[in-house]
Amino acid sequence: MNQPNPNRHRRGTSLIECLTIIAAGAMLTGVVVSGMASLMRYDRHTNQRTVERNQLHQFAATLRNDLHGASACRFDPDSQSLTLTGDKGETLEYRWHAKTCERIVQQPNTTAQTTRMRLPAALKFTCDPVDAHSGDLVRLRITNRATLEKSETNTPAIRQTPPWDLEIVATVGR
Question: What secondary structure does DSSP assign to 44-111, as a single string?
Fold first, then answer.
């Protein structure tokens, strides 16, 4: 019988070795793709929070300027609206909805102009005092409503964003 020569070197690779290398490469590719997907999801979430924060700060600056230009303001907690009145009879109303805020400017004897601003979802607005006149200090607090609610099982709801508050403090008619 022919016996294999122990001094003879094997050429090539066996099928088992090829399959092992392919399986290891597939597992490594799966781990890398999964990690990249997680990084992309985190990046998208971070970008979204940055855009929302910038929109809120822009909204706060606009509202603060409008409060300074008004002679009176009234907050209606039921309808989530803030009405500002000017010296010449003009009114400016902010109406908050799920993900937007409408800024409605009404000059006497003209058509109302509406501007919509995007805001993060689930916001709660409170104002102290509810009625203010020229010279009064107004504190408008914006809270992420979703962080205050509990789930149906009475355990804290899972939060995708940390809780935060934004306070706008301004003097009416300053």
Answer: HHHHHHHHHHHHHHHHHHHHHHHHHH-SEEEEETTTTEEEEE-TTS-EEEEEE-SSEEEEEEE-TTS-
Count other C-beta atoms under 10 Å from residue 5's C-beta: 7
What is the CB-side half-sphere exposure of residue 36 using CA atoms within 13 A?
Answer: 6
- pLDDT, one tens digit per residue, over 102-156 is 899 988 888 888 888 888 777 888 888 888 888 889 898 888 765 444 545 555 5
pTM of whole model > 0.70? no
Phi, psi of 148 (to 5 degrees): -90, -20
- Cis bond upstream, residue 77 (ω within 30): no
